[in-house]
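User: Sequence in, structure out. Go.
Assistant: Echoing your sequence, followed by the structure tokens.
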Amino acid sequence: MGKEVVSGGHPHEDDLRQYVLGRLAAADVEILERHVFQCPTCEDRLASITRMVAQLSQAPTPPEGVDKRKEPRFRASDTGILRSFAPLLPDRWPVQILDIATNGLGLAAPISLAKGTLVQLQVGESFVLGDVRHSTQIDEQRFHVGVRVIHSLGKI
């Protein structure tokens, strides 16, 4: 990222896209986040790029009975880190995968997220971009958050 910034010190659009997709080098993530969370212009740019990636990544549903999964396969006991990109929030929340559906995941999260929130889930080296479909309270400290998978990258 160091050489890939545009004039004025803002991250390049490609770096923001790579960040959303979980492809930005770990060393550059902290630098990018430090800037984006303090720069309203880049916060808006990141939200816009997240929505664009989500729209471009939506693929048609395969015919019934055809298993064309390209996304990572998670176990219902896996844990990960959840981030909100639209709206952009600086927090990262530890989550546990509760259940897995054809195009979605059920997560136990310490926060309720609004329907339509664009999120990134990281489980190990795998990343998922998705949108929140529902969020219901499980107990005083946890919420069941349903996430529809829009795009995924990682080991299968």
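User: And one key feature?
Assistant: The two ends are 28 Å apart (CA to CA).
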